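User: Design a sequence. Structure:
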């Protein structure tokens, strides 16, 4: 064989080798990526050949399927529309899922390892293997009360959120965000129409796609005084300890005095800790925070859950909807020393303090549960296609920021807020209700936010619900009173005593 032929033979062998290697690469390493690619239409068709699992609460389907006569056999439907959209989310044809549809996608689609036996059984029986079902912890009366009261609030607020939790278990009883959206157009098999519907919502300046209950943070105002009270009780104070108060307080290094919301609020030079919380004494808590010091206030907040970046709410043994981290801010001067003026403001929930509605509910739930904070969850059960239990939520302790004694003191103080102080509109007949209001400044040109965090005990002494209601930019004054009213109705509904 002459040299040119040998060279040609070598080249051909090399090319065959490269072709063989590429074939193995495609089949051995890239097959799954190609199979599941959004550009592979056959995968989408196959996915819609089997019914996706139902998402439900209290026996009511929140996400279900409709048989169609088009290329994709099943159409995903959301009968409750805006009410549950921030929780359930939606399942689009060719883009990523949202909400519980996303976090429980493998189980709902039937691809989960937990359903392997069901898939094998279907092969032998000839039955159609479907997706698993998700049962949420949501109490429908509580959820629907939260939605109705937020959207028809008496003060004209256009945005807000609410969360209710069972303090004993962490089960989320309600999670409402306003404004919301109808997920049905995004689940359309007409992908162009679905994309157009999404784009319209995504461009809306009111951000209806945003789950304000877990994804947004706000200055918490006076609700943060619960944490400052806890720090005081853990450092030698008790309910009767007198703290400095007065009409005005100017912190070291500040030119602007802190004042109370009303002239008649704690005008005396000293006030007990219980009275300061009951009447929401800004001057008292500003001075208390400075007295305790930056490190103790920041540590107390962190102990309660501030700064946690990995909290999710969904399945206790799997993925969940991310919860934004609540923050304290640095409270520091340029040289690193404590900014006492900033500390005074932070101690009344202003300056750089930011909190989610979820964190507010966890604060109330921790007090109601004797100092033990349970990890919040939404997925109560996973059921096989034939409704056989696969998973049942087993409550988990997230943290224990305070002792039982401190929790009891806070409970008494917060009950006083509702019975004698700023939170009286949260009262519920037949229940012991405690809480804390909060009115938060957020922008010189905007109305204040209104907050309420609280809890309810039934006549058996059981903590039945803990709630946080947040209303954005409430027109007029006393923004927190409306939040307190809504919170009372949500807790009443969560306790099974009717809705609104």
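Assistant: Done.
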């Amino acid at each position: 064989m002459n040299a040119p032929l040998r060279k040609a033979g070598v080249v051909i062998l090399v090319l065959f080798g490269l072709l063989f290697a590429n074939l193995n690469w495609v089949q051995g390493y890239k097959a799954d990526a190609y199979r599941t690619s959004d550009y592979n239409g056959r995968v989408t068709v196959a996915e819609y050949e089997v019914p996706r699992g139902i998402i439900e609460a209290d026996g009511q389907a929140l996400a279900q399927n409709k048989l169609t006569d088009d290329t994709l056999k099943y159409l995903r439907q959301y009968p409750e529309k805006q009410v549950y959209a921030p929780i359930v989310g939606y399942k689009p044809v060719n883009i990523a899922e949202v909400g519980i549809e996303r976090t429980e996608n493998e189980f709902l689609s039937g691809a989960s390892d937990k359903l392997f036996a069901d898939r094998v059984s279907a092969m032998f029986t000839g039955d159609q293997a479907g997706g698993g079902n998700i049962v949420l912890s949501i109490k429908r009366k509580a959820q629907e009360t939260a939605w109705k009261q937020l959207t028809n609030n008496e003060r004209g607020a256009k945005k807000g959120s609410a969360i209710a939790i069972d303090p004993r278990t962490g089960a989320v009883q309600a999670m409402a965000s306003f404004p919301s959206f109808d997920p049905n157009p995004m689940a359309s098999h007409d992908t162009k129409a679905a994309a157009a519907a999404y784009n319209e919502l995504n461009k809306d300046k009111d951000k209806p796609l945003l789950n304000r209950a877990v994804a947004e943070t706000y200055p918490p105002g006076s609700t943060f005084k619960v944490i400052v009270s806890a720090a005081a009780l853990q450092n030698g104070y008790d309910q009767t300890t007198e703290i400095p108060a007065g009409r005005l307080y100017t912190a070291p290094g500040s030119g602007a005095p802190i004042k109370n919301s009303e002239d008649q609020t704690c005008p005396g030079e000293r006030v007990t800790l219980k009275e300061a919380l009951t009447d929401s004494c800004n001057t008292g808590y500003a001075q208390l925070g400075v007295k305790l010091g930056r490190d103790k206030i920041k540590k107390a907040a962190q102990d309660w859950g501030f700064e946690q970046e990995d909290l999710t709410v969904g399945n206790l043994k799997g993925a969940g909807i991310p919860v934004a981290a609540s923050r304290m801010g640095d409270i520091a001067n340029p040289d690193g020393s404590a900014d006492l003026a900033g500390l005074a403001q932070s101690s009344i929930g202003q300056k750089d303090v930011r909190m989610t509605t979820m964190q507010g509910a966890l604060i109330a739930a921790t007090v109601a549960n004797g100092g033990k904070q349970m990890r919040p969850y939404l997925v109560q059960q996973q059921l096989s296609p034939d409704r056989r239990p696969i998973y049942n939520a087993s409550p988990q302790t997230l943290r224990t920021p305070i002792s039982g004694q401190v929790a009891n003191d806070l409970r008494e103080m917060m009950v006083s807020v509702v019975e004698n102080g700023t939170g009286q509109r949260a009262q519920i007949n037949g229940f012991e209700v405690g809480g804390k209001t909060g009115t938060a400044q957020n922008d010189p040109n905007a109305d204040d936010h209104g907050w309420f965090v609280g809890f309810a005990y039934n006549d058996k002494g059981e903590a039945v619900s803990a709630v946080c209601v947040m209303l954005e930019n409430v027109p007029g004054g006393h923004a927190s009173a409306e939040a307190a009213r809504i919170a009372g109705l949500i807790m009443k509904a969560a306790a099974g005593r009717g809705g609104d």
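The CA atoms of residues 103 and 319 lie 5 Å apart. The chain has 18 helices and 19 strands.
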